[in-house]
Give the backbone structure.
Amino acid sequence: MLIHSAEERERYRALGWWGDVRMQDLLARNAERSPEREALVDPPNLEEITGTPPLRLSWRALADQVQRLATALLELGLRRDDVVVLQMANSHELLACYLACARLGVIISPVVPQYREHELAHILTQSQASAMLVTARIGSHDHARMAAQLANRHPQVRRVMAFGEAADLGGAIDLRAAMRQADDDARLRTHEIEHPVGADDVLTLLWTSGSEGQAKAVPRTHNDWLLYAPQIGSAYRVGDGARLLNGRPLTTHGAFVGSITPWLFHAGTLINHHPFNLPVFLGQMRTESIDFTALAPAILSSLLKEPALLDGVDFTRLRYIGSGSAPLTEAQVRGFHERFGVEVINFFGSTEGASLVSAPADMPDPALRALYFPRFGAAGFDWHHRSAAMVQTRLIDPESGEIIQDPGRTGELCYRGPMVMKGYYRAPELSARALDAQGYYHSGDLFQIAGDQQQYYRFMGRAKDIIIRGGFNISAQEIENLVASHPAVLEVAVVPYPDARLGERICACVVPRPGQTLTLASLLDHLRDEQKLAVIKLPERLVLLDSLPRNPNNKVMKSALRDRAMAQSDPAAPA
């Protein structure tokens, strides 16, 4: 499947930004040049999470596994441009699935393990996926059985496949058994000749949080992803054989940009972690000789408060740590610099492709790096980061659409360049709202121009109604729609409130129907058991109101509700 025009493909190749290398070509190169180098390390607690003992694979062993898995998937009927929804734990098997699907031209549509029937039903319908591929059990949840039940309600899903013990498969096809039987790779080689996959073909469909109420899919090609690899290497000083510790779900845009593509590009070692557990993560930082990792701002603060937790970490090797998903503070960036000699890199990005990076080469002062981003794409400024020369950015007034040129005025960041999506998958109306006629993506994020030469952007907040809980973007509208389905709810508004560990948590502000009562427990029962909502999206506070505060234009004043949510102590006390 192609999404870029012939003119774009020719132009980006002429500029040297795109080429003909595919993800599977990097795997073959790494297996040939560094066959015994460690490629993948499973989380040490994987058996506890999935029932599968953790493995460590060399590049040669990974290439062999990908070969057998691609052959098995071909024999199970998967073909070029089929969409496969994957819901798996962070393990070597997930990376093998990505690379095996890439060889076949099968489009990968990964989702986070926390999603349940509510989210997955929409994703299967929107993507028209022909197969699901899951880790049979993750924690206490039976993903194989859930996938089989969803397939019964979505007839286009022809196959449900699972990695797991026989007792956990729930009727799904046993992929490990299929791989053991897939010894003859002649059919795979013939298929690759007859159905060649190019670097301009779509590789992934990644899902946004869905600020309009439902998740949206962003298609990405091999060239789209590999454009990031040298940029990350430059910003994070990641080179050949680098060892990367990944604590994010390997299903997200951040993981593809910050972990998967640099790992493949630099023939590195990807040390995986799942689910996030700080003691386990710190143990991996001590024992795995890490060159680079990423941590949320709240974790950085926790570690600065208890620096003894980092005893034993080799900071002569781990010199750079990425961070994002929430604003950084000067104390966090300066604290790691002064105490450990570590440079914290400030990263802003979206699944749609807008990205800003504040790295030491462009922002050596930790105080500036915490608060500002280089004004990539604005005329008159030169930056070290490679993407600065590839993009154009501007701020526009959200109400008037006027382009903002002056410092101190807040505007929406608009972003154009080869990283920006071509549109959402099978959603032309939503694509038209997100992309203007000049090809700028309207990010929904608010910034100001700053600096003595107007050379910086400063993040000011979000125009879109998004809650960021533990690094996950959650649509307030989606939660509002589901809360409103409770029979006791007359009106609802969902807002975030700050949390030191997760960044933000979720509060539902509800006007009950006359004569009805509502508790947080009954609301959660409704959302979890009837609406099948993912646990990460469940409200943790409930504010009961006589009416929602509104401005003269009848718009709900969420700033006032955020103040109520912060002041709430009892999760369901009347306000």
